[in-house]
Write the structure tokens for this entry.
Amino acid sequence: MPDPDLPQTSATHLRLSFHPPARHGPADVSVRKNLSAAARVGDALFLACDEAAGLERLTWTGADWGDHRHFDLADWMALPGGPDGEMDIEGLCADDGWLWIAGSQSLKRGHPRGAVGAAGMARLANVAWDANRQFLGRVPLAQQGGVALPVRRDGARGAAHLAFGGRGKLRKWLRDDPLLGPFLNLPSKENGLDVEGIAAQGNRVWLGLRGPVLRGFAVVIEMEMKETRPGRLKARRIDGRRRYRLHLLDLGGSGVRDLAIDGDDLLLLTGTPLAGDGQARIYRWPGGCAVRSAGVQPGLRVALDLPYRAATDNPEGLARWDAGHWLVVHDAPSAARLAGAPATFLADLWQLSG
């Protein structure tokens, strides 16, 4: 479906149809204007809105992607920030009957919101922590009418996550890290810790960081998860005493905005680590899934330069669509993406270089 105001270099544009669902959280949250992650499982497309604590599912109806349904994570587990607390979901990944979900783990700085002078400065001085942002876990996917359905329990498989408490297990494990530890008290979009993207293969999990970016190198955290008891995940010790390993990737000063697996390769959707706009690309890390040692990783190459559209159309989510195409969804969408029927969104499908 061509649109003169959208990039014509993409393979096609995909219409997603939402409706205002009954949901927890602020009534004015618009899902289609705040898309942050995506994952496809057959005729189900899962999406996240970064201003809520739940999942969105669209289903292929035979004519379009619609039949919108919202799922509150609070229906499956007791969230530390309550059902209305912002989780800032920035990563989704479907693997082997599970849907993995990653909150941003980030601090956030207040916004002046039109205030000037001392009042505006006071708002900027406020750095807050939303407890739900520490979420990192998975829910089983059952089948209902041939469509994937996220559930609390499916037979012996149940929803599970890292233990809640304080500012979260991941931050606790990283606080003494010589590279990442110094950035833990900085807010997101200011080179503070900010998870944006998750990929999973079995019990191995990779987290892409929007920040910090270290002298131009982006960071991917790798962990191997185990379920210590029903409902509880924990990372194994894999590098000496650490429960994680760090991969440093030369992305030209960009941070990671999402991750995806393509065979043995890892794909990285990238963009500016700071507030504001910048060039977005998709990089390919050949053989990234086979790497089992920490350090600076060579050999990355650009698989696609995404169109630069200034302050609009910020690419946030990357998901395999079919054998030859990849779905990209955007935050801060341009008016052209929202044109047409109410509550629709035009996403992009791209072909990548090998």
Observations:
- Residues 24-28 have pLDDT under 50 and may be disordered.
- The chain has three helices and 27 strands.
- The chain has one domain: 12-350.
- The longest strand covers residues 217-229.
